[in-house]
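[agent] plan:
  1. take the single chain provided in the ticket
  2. run structure prediction with default settings
  3. attach structure tokens to the ticket
  4. add a short note for the reviewer (M.T.)
[agent] executing step 1
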Amino acid sequence: MAEKLVIIGNGMAPGRMLEELFEKAPGHFDVTIFNAEPRVNYDRIMLSPVLSGEKSYDDIVIHNDDWYAAHGVTLHKGARVTGIDRHAKTVTSANGITVAYDKLVIATGSLPFIIPVPGHQLPGVLPYRDLDDVDAMLRIAERKGRAIVIGAGLLGLEAAYGLKRQGMDVTVVHLMPTIMERQLDPAAAYLLEKALTERGIEIITKANTKQILGTEKVEGIELEDGRVISGDMVIMAVGIRPASSLAKEAGIAVNRGIVVDDGMMTSDPNVFALGECAEHRGTCYGLVAPLYEAARVLADRLTGGSAEYHGSVVNTKLKVTGINLFSAGDFAEAPDREEIVLRDASAGIYKRLVLKDNKILGAVLYGETGDGSWFFDLMKRGTDISEMRDTLIFGQSYQGGTPLDPMAAVAALPDDAEICGCNGVCKGKITTTISSKGLTSLDDVRAHTKASASCGSCTGLVEQLMVLTLGDGYNPAAVTPMCSCTELGHDDVRRLIKAKGLKTIPAVMQELEWKTSCGCAKCRPALNYYLVADWPDEYADDYQSRFINERVHANIQKDGTYSVVPRMWGGVTNAAELRAIADVVDKFEIPMVKVTGGQRIDLLGIEKEDLPAVWADLGKAGFVSGQAYAKGLRTVKTCVGSDWCRFGTQDSTGLGIRIEKFMWGSWTPAKLKLAVSGCPRNCAEATCKDIGVICVDSGFEIHFAGAAGLDIKGTDVLGLVKTEDEALEHIVALTQMYREQGRYLERIYKWAKRIGHDEIRRQIMGDADKRRAYYDRFVFSQKFAQVDPWSERVSGKDKHEFKPMATINYNQAAE
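[agent] step 2 finished; step 3 output follows
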């Protein structure tokens, strides 16, 4: 019979412990979790990107409801535990739930310290510890105004940056002479303060808060020196204290935190403590990496092991876009210590290593932090650095005085070297998981190890480990820079376009520090698509940033002529349309007329200067562009369905036409082809399309992620819906999800593999609110997309594009 394991708290540390536990001993425990917050487990490290708008809540969820269900975990949300009865071995929550335990883990985390100055209880005075705090800040930030942050430590500065990104004026007041004084020396603090000031954040040091001003809500603060700063919100970011009162009330030994031994056991052998509430060897840790180390030990102990936790050396990184900062160890000055310092004023780089007896005691890196993990590993191991003393400050690639291949430097790291500080993942964990699970993509590695899944600063190291482990089997296309103009990949560029509110190509290139003045043929079309998709009502489509086919709205052929494909809704035409096509063919002496695989007619061999006239004649007959050239909706192929076919179960032609008329004109990351088949005989070949529908007696079976080009693969089933309206909503929502998440030129089947078919089903089939939100955003964008480009050009838009270049008589010119 399974033992009863009860966990109080659902933060990152107990989440990691459960992952380890289920891997080591699946089914050994019947697990119940009490979570004071009304939600699942999420990545608190990423609260700052949520506050700044760079990520959403969904982006930072670690374990969703499906994960708990799959592992048989009972999760009580919004259930704060009020008592532990150690004699009866039960736990009781404020909402009246009592559960018995065999083993109990207390993971209650920490509480923010609120300075007890007058006015500290006013509405608008907020801590910065959880998602509720972030939501409260965002509500106030909607009105803009000024935010005052008390405390210039790690969290305070991240809060300041996030609120600045939300459009608020921000002032940070700090008691000490320099910011982040626990993590930075004065030189690095100076560079950081300068960078934050340049971002519009006001910082006042040596400032002690006397009182918070206001009557019914926050109106500002007064400092001890008499200065008054007006504001609409005050963020307290001055420290935390372990949430240990529950254990203390139960008679468990508590000092500053809940006292634990090297196996994370409290003074009660059936009760363990984990996370920020625990005190180990006199230390309470507030960073996630040591908590993850302790989580692994506890999982081992709960399954009969003997692992021990001996404490941790920690490092710090700041999650502010564009600022690279790394700090670890003890960097205070002392007579028996020496230091190595590297400064590059023009590049904004500062590096300092503190040494004692030829061992690294501390490291501070600003501006260039790539060697942080290596320095940190040398420090933890107490490595003698005397042989590389002269080149140590230049990093791992120069150890021994000779530059190394960066790949060789990563290969030289030991298996227990920490790669991902946010999630406490070592090199050996990553390489072993890649090999044992056959992982081939960065997203797979993130999903299985959590490495690079939080702030992303270790992504380069993780990629290098993938290359070392997989060799030629690793395809880095998805994580390499968009092009040589930038160091950023597609996902980061798109995330920052939204987060920073960038709405023109020049703005993107300036704010994201493009290396070239105007971009290139790879990045400009991608940026143009992302801006069109993300700001449909504000961004003006830049035709110069499109490939030739999209620029002239026709397909260029091998001889320099063009083909034109009028749109035929669902593949249906009539005599009048056919006559109009025939007249155009005769008038312009078009040499080839071809029926396409998408049930349309292709007119091939048209001269570029004739295109507007061809479109004009076709437009008079009611045709619009078939956009056969587009990274967008191409065709919706149909069979005749129930109106004509004796096997048809639904009106497949009618549904196909409805879908095409609803969705035409929409730009997508790559070409998008749909089909609707009226029965499982699948005459419209719906099961090899990007999105397909198979009509059945009970409704409409929606398929997705097929391919019939260089890659050939059948679709996967998204789900079954009963009505045409539902089919349309689901297809449109799926398309919008792809539009928002797909990388430019990434076909839907590749996107689906990267995101995960189950995740797509969860969002589109399982979450009605999310599905409707996708649908509504698509409908909004169509207000600006459904403009026929042919009729625009006929009316004169971009008419210079279609004028032939002048022909020069060189003999006359010579005269």
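[agent] step 4 note for reviewer: Confidence is low (pLDDT under 50) at residues 806-815.
[agent] ticket updated
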